[in-house]
Design brief:
The protein is an alpha/beta fold. The protein has 8 helices and 8 strands; from the N terminus they run βαβαβαβαβαβαβαβα. The protein has an 8-stranded mixed beta sheet with strand order 3-2-1-4-5-6-7-8, sandwiched between helices. Bound molecules: NADP nicotinamide-adenine-dinucleotide phosphate.
Length: 214
C-alpha cells in the first residue's frame, strides 16, 4: 500500500519504518525538521521518502495519523483533501500535559477526528501499544504467538487495510467493533501506557487476550 505518515515522532517514525520494511511505499511527513524526515526515509530503505503532509496525502491511499491532539487541526489543514482516504489514527486525545484524555465516555478522539475529516475513512489502531515495543514485535514476527492489537472502525475498507498493516507489523488484529468502541480502547491505551511506563516491567509490554468460556 502507499502509506503516508502524518506525524513522524515516536509512533510515526517507528511504524513508518516498519511499514516500509514490510514492503509498503511510505512517505514520512510532519516533523519540525525536514532533515529528520529525510533521514527517516533513508534509514527505512525501500521506496520511502520525505514529504509535506500535503504530498503524503496526495501520494498515499492510507494515512497514519500520529500527532498530539493539540496538532490535529494543523496537520489536517496541511494535509488538504482527505476525501476517500483511509486514515488510521493511533493518536490519543490527550491534554497538553499528557496526563489525561480530554475526550471520553460519550465520544472518543477517533470519533472527533471523523467530525474534522468527514470524508476520510477512519479506523483506530496501534494506539494501545507503547512505541518502544514496536520494533521488537516486528522482529519477532513469525516466531511464536503474536501479541494482539485491537482496532475499531465503521468503514470496511479502512478496517481491511488496518488488518493488513497490523499483521505486517507482527501483531494479531482483534476487531473491537465500530468506531464508537474507541471510547473503550482509548482509555485502555492509557492503562497499557501506565503499566508500561510507570510499572516495574518497563515498556516491554505488548498483550495477548485469552477468551475463557462463552
Ligand atoms: N509514544 C507512544 O508510545 C504512544 C502510544 C500510543 C499512542 N500514542 C499517541 O500517538 C500520537 C503520537 O505520539 P508520539 O509519541 O509519536 O508523539 P511525538 O513523538 O511527539 O510525535 C509527534 C510528531 O509531530 C511532530 N510535530 C509536533 N509539533 C509540530 C509542529 N509544530 N510542526 C511540525 N511537526 C510537529 C513532531 O515533530 P518532531 O519529530 O520534530 O518532534 C513529531 O514528529 C499521540 O496522539 C499519542 O497520544 C503514542
Amino acid at each position: 500500500m502507499r502509506v503516508g505518515i502524518l506525524g513522524s515522532g515516536l509512533m510515526g517514525a517507528k511504524l513508518g519504518t516498519i511499514f516500509a520494511r514490510a514492503g509498503h511505499d511510505v512517505t514520512f511527513s510532519y516533523a519540525r525538521s525536514r532533515e529528520k524526515l529525510k533521514k527517516l526515509a533513508k534509514d527505512a530503505g525501500g521506496t520511502a521518502r520525505a514529504g509535506t503532509p500535503g504530498e503524503a496525502a496526495e501520494a498515499s491511499d492510507v494515512l497514519l495519523l500520529a500527532v498530539h491532539w493539540s496538532r490535529f487541526a494543523d496537520v489536517l489543514k496541511q494535509a488538504g483533501s482527505l476525501a476517500g482516504k483511509i486514515m488510521v489514527t493511533c493518536s490519543l486525545p490527550m491534554n497538553d500535559a499528557d496526563t489525561a484524555l480530554v475526550v471520553g465516555n460519550t465520544s472518543s478522539g477517533a470519533e472527533e477526528l471523523v467530525k474534522r475529516a468527514p470524508k476520510a475513512r477512519v479506523v483506530s489502531a496501534f494506539n494501545t501499544v507503547p512505541s518502544e515495543v514496536l520494533f521488537d514485535v516486528f522482529e519477532s514476527k513469525g516466531k511464536g504467538t503474536p501479541p494482539n492489537l485491537v482496532y475499531c472502525g465503521d468503514d470496511a475498507r479502512a478496517k481491511k487495510a488496518a488488518v493488513e498493516l497490523i499483521r505486517d507489523a507482527g501483531f494479531e488484529p482483534v476487531d473491537a467493533g465500530p468506531l464508537r468502541i474507541a471510547r473503550y480502547t482509548e482509555p485502555f491505551a492509557l492503562l497499557v501506557g501506565q503499566l508500561a511506563y510507570e510499572g516495574k516491567a518497563g515498556p516491554e509490554l505488548a498483550y495477548r487476550f485469552v477468551r475463557f468460556g462463552t
